[in-house]
Amino acid sequence: MRNYFTHLCNDIDAQIEELKRNKPTTSSTPNIIISIEAGLAKLKKYMDDHPFVNSDEEIYFFKVLKPKIVSKWIYYKKMYQIDLEKPLGSIEQKKAHISSELDTITKYFLANTFFIQYLRSGKTDFDQKYFIRKNALEIPIHECYSCEIDYDYGTGYDHRIALVQAYEMLEIELNQQLESLRNPSLLFSTKKNNTGLTTCADNVLNWTGPQTALVEVIYGLFFTGMVNNGTADVKDIAECFENAFNIQINQLYRTFLGIKNRKNNTLKFIDLMKMTLEKKNR
User: How far apart are CA 161 and CA 178, in angstroms?
Assistant: First the structure.
């Protein structure tokens, strides 16, 4: 079972990396979730075809193995929800949104202090009650992320472990996002990304032109599909520019509508860039 589980986890991780490499995170997340769900279906079939030989094997499966995959599923489901609900307004609004999600995680950890301490201490006193299915029925747990508990395939407590693990990953990711909003220069100091390429220069850059000019550039990149092979969302492109140039873009879409409704010289900044480049190139 452990060998099968290791190969399955490796396959899922490889698929996740491939999906993230080909598309931006928000666009790739639905397919990542589908991939993890397919892996969970394979795990369930394997468990059905290979009954546990003893209680120790059952405990290990529900306490250690299954939560590793379910936690990834919960993490990506939650991250996708947070990304979809992310406000398009000011940086302060975005920080408030992330802080609210972090408060939810903190409350969950506080409400489950005993269980989390039990896991982190390495104790096994309650393993028979928590991770043996017939025993777990005697102390039912009503907490589940998206569905009722299937006691043929879980105890409820295996799901709680997965939720704790997912929230731990989520807490790290959200704190990083919050820190980057508080200190935009942290994201854009000279460093290597996962492809080995330098991401930006050492100096902090500030946008000193009108916001409408920057919005022209953002929508120009969006409509021409020049970012991530055309899969990047306009709000993600805008957020990147906000962080890069230390600026808050207020009412992105409303500004774009204003540009579209100009009677004369619709693309003032792009036309200015073109004229300036042509002059310098002579």
Answer: 25
Beta-bridge partners for 57: none
Angle between helices 91-111 and 66-85 (to 10 degrees): 150
Q: Residue 208 has which token pair?
A: 């000193």
Q: What is the pTM of this model?
A: 0.64
pLDDT digits (tens, 9 = 90+) for 211-266: 899 999 998 998 888 887 777 778 888 888 888 888 888 778 888 888 887 877 77
How far apart, in whole angstroms, are the C-alpha atoms of residue 202 and residue 253? 31
Residues 164-218: pLDDT tens digits?
999 999 998 898 888 878 776 554 444 444 444 444 544 568 888 888 999 999 9
Tokens 């820190």, residue located: 179
- 3-class SS letters over the chain: CHHHHHHHHHHHHHHHHHHHHHCCHHHHHHHHHHHHHHHHHHHHHHHHHCCCCCHHHHHHHHHHHHHHHHHHHHHHHHHHHHHHHCCCCCHHHHHHHHHHHHHHHHHHHHHCHHHHHHHHHCCCCCHHHHHCHHHHCCCCCCCCCCCCCCCCCCCCHHHHHHHHHHHHHHHHHHHHHHHHHHCHHHCCCCCECCCCCECCCCCCCCCCCCHHHHHHHHHHHHHHCCCHHHCCCHHHHHHHHHHHHCCCCCCHHHHHHHHHCCCCCCCHHHHHHHHHHHHHCC
